Amino acid sequence: MGRPTRWVTDTDENHSQWYIERFRAMAADGVDLGGEARLLDAMLPPRSRVLDAGCGPGRVGVLLHERGHEVVGVDADPELIAAAREDHPGPQWLVADLAELDLARHGVIEPFAGAVLAGNVMAFVAPGTESDVLTAIAAHLAPDGILVVGFGADRGYALDDFDRHAGSAGLRREHRFATWDLRPWRQSSDFAVTVLRAGIHETVAPESTPGSES
Q: Does domain 6-198 match CATH 3.40.50.150?
């Protein structure tokens, strides 16, 4: 693991367990926790490979799995991954640092058609690693794959910086919304959901040599 994430440095030692129990209670109460998964499901072909980056206890990834997608969830917090494995068997849940993500080390070789960073994940990565995180995730996407990222405007990570980091990772912005249910984004919006697209690897035809034309 690299530098400690803000999830570790900016929260108390019981935060992970509190977070796990919070979402278990919300699910038990019938709270709708599926907005992020519904959006990804609508944007992807059936049975796509999806990376749930910063998956926490698995609430997004399991819903994508239930919709027929092949899901790999990754989080740097072993406690959250343990809860995901306990509560949501089916997807593959892995402990890994997003800033140093290399899923081939875990035997995950095939690229992903889509990835999601939900739950303010970008606000909790280690300071200064935001560009590394986006670059590492982009490297795991198939050509023309999508990455959908949501975080609050008050979380200390400016959208201008995010856009710059995404561009340097080879991701182009296609859409920005204010909510996961696609309400229009405005400069005054307190949340942003951004749809990014990985570049297509184009094949360049070799130049013809003199005398090669028929």
A: yes
